[in-house]
Design brief:
Shape: elongated
Helix content: under 10%
Structural class: mainly beta
Number of strands: 9
Largest sheet: 5 strands, mixed
């Protein structure tokens, strides 16, 4: 059986160093400004989320992305785009959407 891939790209906003990439409740990597990450996964249903890096108390007012459920089939590449969205002080959130 061939693995599938979850691929996530990010905007170029350099104000925030990196996001933590979480798949199925485990941190699998970091996503830097203007970068992309490809995470190999077994076929099946997976949960994807981006979280702010660093200590939670430092990130007060910042919201992690929604958690998305996605079905990945054998050999498939499932793509997401991400960016930082400002929704008024102090709320800043990570917006994750299917590409």
């Amino acid at each position: 059986m061939q693995d599938g891939t979850i691929r996530i790209s990010r905007d170029h906003d350099p104000k925030f160093p990196f996001f933590e990439v979480w798949v199925d409740g485990a941190q699998v990597g970091r996503l830097y400004p203007g970068g992309e990450i490809a995470v190999p996964v077994r076929p099946g249903h997976h949960r994807v989320q981006l979280r702010w890096s660093g200590l939670r108390w430092v990130n007060r007012g910042k919201r992690d992305s929604e958690t998305y459920g996605v079905a990945v089939t054998e050999g498939a590449v499932v793509g997401f785009d991400s960016r930082v969205e400002f929704s008024g002080w102090p709320q800043t959130r990570i917006r994750l959407r299917r590409a």
